[in-house]
Amino acid sequence: MNPLGVAGGVLQAVVIVGGAPLVVGLMRQIRARLEGRAGAGVAQPWRDLRKQLRKQPASPRGTSEIYRSAPVLLVATTLVVAVVAPFVTTASALPAVADLFVVVALLALGTVMIALAGIDTGTAFGGMGASREVTILALVEPTVLVAIFALSVRAGSTNLSAIVGSVLDDPARLVSPASLLAAVALVVVIVAETGRLPVDNPATHLELTMVHEAMVLEYAGPDLALVELGSAMRLSVYLGLLANLFVPWGVATGPGVAALAVGVAAFAVKVTLLAAALALAEVFLAKLRLFRVPELLAGSFLLALLSVTTAYVLV
Amino acid sequence: MLSLWRKIRRTGRVAEPPPSADRPTPLTSELAGSVQIRHVDAGSCNGCEIEIGSAFGPVYDAERYGARLVASPRHADALLVTGAVTRNMAEPLRRTFEAVSAPKVVVAVGDCARDCGAFTGAYGVVGAVHDIVPVDLEVAGCPPRPEAIVEALRTLTGR
Amino acid sequence: MNPVEFGLAAAVAVGLAGTVAALLVPRPARPGVTGACVAVAGALGLTAGIAAVTGVTWSVHLPAVLPLAGVDLAVDGLSGVFLAVAGAVAVAAGIYGIGYARHGLDGRAVQAAFPMFVLSLLLVPAAGGVGTFGLCWELMALSSLILVLAEHRRRPAVASAGLWYAVMTHLGFVAILVGLLVAAGPADGGSFAAIRAAAPGLPPAVAGLAFMACLVGFGSKAGIVPLHAWLPRAHPEAPSHVSALMSAAMVNLGVYGVVRVGIDLLGGGPRWWWLLTLAVGAVSAVYGILQAVVAGDLKRLLGHSTTENMGLVLVGVGACGLFTVDGEAVLAALALTAALLHVIGHAAFKTLLFLSAGSVLHATGTRDLDALGGLRARMPATTAAFGLGALAASALPPGTAFVSEWLLLQSLVHGLPAAGVVASIVLPLGVAAVALTAGLAVATFVKAFGVGFLARPRGSGAAGARESPPTMLAGMALAAAACVGLAIAPMLVLPALAQVAGTLTRTGPPVSGAVTIELDGVAGAMSPVLLAAALVAGCVVVVVLVRVSAARPARRETRLWDCGGGPLTERMQYTATSFAEPLQRVFDNVLQPVQDIEVTHHRESQYLVEAVAYRRRVPDRIERRLYEPVLAAVAAWGRAGRRLATGSVHLYLGFGFAVLCGAFVMLVVTR
Fold this sequence. Notes:
The complex is a heterotrimer. By secondary structure, chain A is mainly alpha-helical. Chain A has helices at about 5-35, 45-55, 65-85, 100-120, 125-155, 160-170, 175-195, 210-215, 220-245, 255-285, 295-315, and one strand spanning about 60.
């Protein structure tokens, strides 16, 4: 635990909490413009959050503390990842937690809590959403871990800072087939995990087509604010991880205010570009049928496996 | 995919400019800038639904003022009620109103919702929306024009 | 006095006293006395095990106790690990059993078998020779069989489960005996020390035969696919504290056997042994968890999850052997450490899960997840216990299994660059299997906990449930404390385990550190306690920020959002079957479920439906393909043999005459 790491961790948390709703707003704005609309503006998610904090929270009868604590845990797990992972600086506040397996498992913990909360309400939609979310999670996990495996074999460690550092030291590795295959696999996985098209439609109003939304139908007020902030942060964290694992340039490796400022700017630019690309792609995609999603995920799993094999063969 | 891209390029922006340039004062300051809406069809002929649909379509684009349709009344701040309230929908309407957390507003859209319109005295009708739940705002018309609906939504969001 | 010797001797004395007491004490006091004896014997076994793990060894040869072979006992670090695990599980199960046995389990035979079973669990890892090992192993099989059959009067399924268990465990025993005897052939006597000394001189084919036979025998005890058929039968039908002992302590001994014979006695071996071990481990892990995710019976689900976890442990053992062959001693020690930690973690959370499942069964009278639910309000302590166990089992941080799976993945990640071509194909597949298992385990335990305990009761049993008596809760609390300890502070046990693994693989301990788990020799560090602290801090920050910024902090109670249309009934909730349906459909080709939809039409019109009956069963495919033909062949053989026994005395005299003539002819020819 060094001062740079702590400062960087706090800075990352502030940047991600502050910026994540803006990223979602940007994606909605891009989509609106492509649909010929004017759009609500990039800051609209923040207005929504501000308003939800003013509303009264509600607990349906028969729900337990799982229901009440799930939104807190969703944000807390993502917040821990935002603090420890190398987004702005490679000096981690808690190097012993900045492990790729740990980070992925922490994000999965948030998903599991929300799924349990969905079951806890005892509504048909809650159970349905939880069942679908957990199915997708169970199929996403192998791909993520195998893709991580491919990346860490190259770096000789599963520590995030070490992986990012190894790419900075040897940029030629980036264009290796292993790296590219892993990147493609991770993109598919991130789309599935953050509930974007074609796996889930974040803007749907129809309960039967919902995955993530169906689990949180009962939340109101600050609870809902936390759920939405949590989802937004997860999107930013995943995009940030993708960006820094494959295009780490700009991330601060040494101390200094200037280095940190460059790190923040580079991180913002990378995530914005990725989010814009994702929003652009979503306009051209329709939602897949639920039982076609496993095929997509199986494909990404194969890519990840291929990536490991090529990582070994073409070292 | 390319043809879709060409269509996007060709169409450009279809959203019309706001009907009036000045910002309305919001109904409650707590909802300023963001109102999530649950639509309840209490017994409408679906005329109002078509107009609400077009108010949220690209041309009128009510979302640009911070209004958004949501799937659950728990997420909502405003109920958009259409139609004269029928016997079967009176209780569900009451329950939907209960399900919305404070602060909340109710908008009665269309003449039927305001005073039962053509259905006054019909055997299946309990009454207008204000007979069941307190109404904060009314939109006249049978059906109301999308501009009127957008205008009402703007008084909610104040944008 | 040597603490190991003292602990074991005292445990044997207390255990035997418990057995005798169970036979003598009147019924009302019986569960209390045996439960207390079991707990004390377990605690003594635990202390002996801990002493052994910390480096105290002890061995003794008692020629007078058994004719011909005598009794050999030898306790080293590896025995100590399994001794301590069995002892610790017995403490929790013994205390729990006091309250649990009041429901028709206080018969003499059952209560007398309980301490015997625990005793045999303590003695198997302490055995130091083939004869002693076989004796203890058989004692363990018989005493556990009596316990599995405890409730045979109440449910017919118990008898069938007992039959499966008896046959499988004895076939396994035959394989183990063959393996050990083949290995002991050239050795000077049957003690493990003699086998170890003679092992380098064994021809490769003989050593391979010995290892294969042992892998089959021990694998069947560990519930490894395809020899797992008894496990999902016997575990649900046994009383729950016995299930806990079987699942958390007995199946481990299968792993103990593989490690003891393969790595210790035979000293490694060629690559194919370990590739095979790794492969069956990976297949078992995936197959076990796939069966668990679609299981609708709570205890059957836990039984399948045992297969999965033993599979993961064998992946670690296989990786250890593989790295040993490749000369990567540090990685081998790391993989073995991960496997041993997983054994301990699995014992802790599976004890907790089975005990809380027993508590549910006790209170609701059903194990069917589809009929449970809503237990949070009615059984808060049991719900908390099961929730903790589910978190521990699903490899999510901060959970028990997460630490061991992290270690296992670390050893596989670092093994890839070092290993050869075969390993470069096998290791990624191993990682993929571990990863798929981890994902499906999350789904399994979300289902078990969410559907079984949260929401509202789906059946009358669950609706009328009451919290279990304090002795049962005390047993669960002990297991829960072990789970939390292993999840937050694995460094309490890891250095000792690393030492044991290091000694077995002839290198130093691969793990060090106090707060952070630091890998020695390869890059890698992780701190479960810092992770947990960070999570708590994150929660506090979030709660404080929301409190500060929320305008209306008071929560209101509301009715469920039922779309405005009248109350939602319990029947409208998702059940375990519906929850697992998407996964079942995804893995359709592997599971091949049998579905039956029966539509009854209205009498007046075929367009009106009166009732729809839906039945779904997921039969075990391996069982159907592998066991049914064998069973059919055995039955056919039996029928053929029956033709010889017609009941005619003349014919039987004729048989006797023919055999006698044959014997004479043989004597003449061979002389």
